[in-house]
Design brief:
Length: 145
């Protein structure tokens, strides 16, 4: 059998009810809880910023895709003009239809990209900030008793 220590706070002592705990034990519990709270809030903030940064990256990629399709649309329009002037027959109509389809794709990509960028901005951890503000209000309320 092992003997329990007679002096100092142990892990078992830290789990005692607040009514029967000594001031030193309460301060130790408070320090541990504040430390855990700060770490948890920092993890939440990091996860939230990472999620928003990912949305910004996707939105920027979609904007890039929209620009690429717009470039292809412009190239096809130039080809359409060349074909229309050179032949003045049906092949230019086919090129014009392709250009319209490419511009429609660019428009859809631009709208989707804009929506994703709006969801990702501003890149601040709003939930974490709200949690910290609620924690501060709780501590202030408890301290004013």
């Amino acid at each position: 059998m092992t003997q329990t220590p007679t002096g100092g706070a142990t892990r078992a002592d830290a789990a005692t009810a607040p009514e029967s705990a000594s001031t030193g034990q309460l301060v130790g519990q408070l320090t541990e809880q504040i430390s855990r709270l700060v770490k948890d809030e920092a993890r939440l903030a990091q996860a939230e910023v990472a999620q928003k940064a990912k949305r910004l990256g996707i939105g920027a990629g979609l904007f890039g895709g929209a620009g690429l399709f717009a470039f292809f649309g412009l190239a096809v329009l130039v080809t359409t003009a060349v074909l229309a002037l050179a032949l003045v027959v049906a092949p230019w109509l086919a090129a014009l239809v392709v250009a319209v389809v490419l511009f429609a794709i660019a428009g859809v990509l631009a709208l989707v990209g804009k929506k994703d960028v709006q969801k990702g901005t501003p890149p601040i951890p709003e939930q974490a900030i709200a949690g910290v503000q609620a924690d501060i209000a709780t501590v202030r309320k408890a301290a004013s008793r």
